[in-house]
């Protein structure tokens, strides 16, 4: 199953190739709200209803009208150094526990929106993003997937100068400018994926591949992240986890390379879909 945020309304994506979707509020006769974020606290109820939805009322949509699948999470977690090759290119040791920071919700945007450059050192970071569907507190790793509503594509865009400013790194600020947290194009339930623990991901700038990886190379897998985070605090329905990026970021290159106005950033995740963003000057 795929769900999406279409013009701030929750829809079931009936055919992602043909671009058709079903408005959930209308199809459910008001049982479920049009608010995309409101579906996560009722995730199990929604899963039970969705197979019976009358898809004959599905309509074509413009992908440019898609927004973030979970647009207003209560909590956003982002994981650093979670691929071995990325830790190596950063010259840092692998962490013993997840390296956690946040991206503020004001950074969220859709899968096709323009992104305004916040400075001269804006970097790309393709990431698999997990959205929580069931409250999780002290969950063992073997039950971690039970708490995932679905997966989507994300970019952890980063202004590296701001990120590294001061005596202590400002990860959350450097990664939270408006538009620096795009997700989409929709949320895909894990059962739709051939192997939810081994998914290809990558991104390209102006048609040139700059990152490629597989989630089987994660240091901490999705269920392990849920176990580690829920050991500290309660994960709530609709919370978002950016799971980390593989090697190939601009700051890890020699010479360093950053995004410029006019660039097109294309982000793709196997079994989920593609996002396209144009970088524009302030």
Q: Helices and strands, in N-to-C order?
A: EEEHHEEEHEEEEEEEHHEEEHEEE
Number of β-strand runs: 19
Beta fraction of the residues? 25-35%
Q: Termini separation (Å)?
A: 38 Å
Give the count of structural domains: 2
Q: At the third CATH level, what is the topology name of the largest domain?
A: Fumarylacetoacetate hydrolase, domain 2
Q: What is the average of the pLDDT values?
A: 97
Largest sheet: 12 strands, mixed
Cα radius of gyration in angstroms: 18 Å
Oligomerization category of the chains in this entry: single chain
Q: How much helix, percentage-wise, in residues?
A: 10-25%
What is the overall silhouette? globular
Uncertain spans: none
CATH H-level superfamily of the largest domain: Fumarylacetoacetase-like, C-terminal domain
Count of helical stretches: 6
**Overall SS class:** mainly beta
CATH class of the largest domain: Alpha Beta
Which second-level CATH architecture of the largest domain applies? Alpha-Beta Complex
Question: Which tags fit this structure?
Answer:
2 domains, 12-stranded mixed beta sheet, 282 residues, 12% helix, Fumarylacetoacetate hydrolase, domain 2, mainly beta, 32% strand, 5-stranded mixed beta sheet
């Amino acid at each position: 199953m795929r769900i999406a945020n279409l013009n701030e309304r929750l829809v079931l994506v009936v055919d992602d190739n043909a671009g058709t979707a079903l408005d959930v509020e209308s199809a459910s006769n008001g049982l479920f709200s049009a608010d995309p974020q409101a579906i996560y606290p009722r995730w199990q109820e929604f899963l039970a209803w969705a197979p019976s939805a009358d898809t004959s009322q599905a309509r074509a949509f413009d992908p440019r009208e898609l927004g973030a699948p979970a647009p207003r999470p209560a909590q956003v977690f982002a994981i650093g150094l979670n691929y071995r090759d990325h830790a190596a290119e950063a010259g840092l040791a692998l962490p013993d526990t997840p390296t956690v920071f946040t991206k503020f919700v004001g950074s969220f945007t859709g899968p096709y929106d323009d992104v305004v450059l916040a400075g001269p050192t804006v970097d790309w970071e393709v990431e698999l993003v997990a959205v929580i569907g069931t409250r999780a507190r002290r969950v063992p790793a073997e039950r971690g997937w039970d708490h995932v509503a679905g997966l989507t594509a994300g970019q952890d865009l980063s202004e590296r100068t701001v990120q590294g400013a001061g005596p202590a790194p400002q990860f959350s600020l450097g990664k939270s400018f408006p538009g620096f947290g795009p997700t989409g194009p929709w949320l895909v339930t894990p059962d739709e994926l051939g192997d939810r623990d081994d998914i290809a991901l990558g991104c390209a700038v102006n048609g040139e591949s700059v990152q490629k990886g597989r989630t089987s190379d994660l240091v901490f897998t999705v269920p392990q992240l849920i176990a580690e985070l829920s050991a500290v605090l309660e994960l709530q329905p609709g919370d978002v986890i950016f799971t980390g990026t593989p090697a190939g970021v601009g700051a890890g290159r020699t010479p360093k390379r950053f995004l410029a106005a006019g660039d097109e950033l294309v982000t793709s995740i196997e079994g989920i879909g593609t996002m396209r963003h144009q970088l524009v000057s302030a």
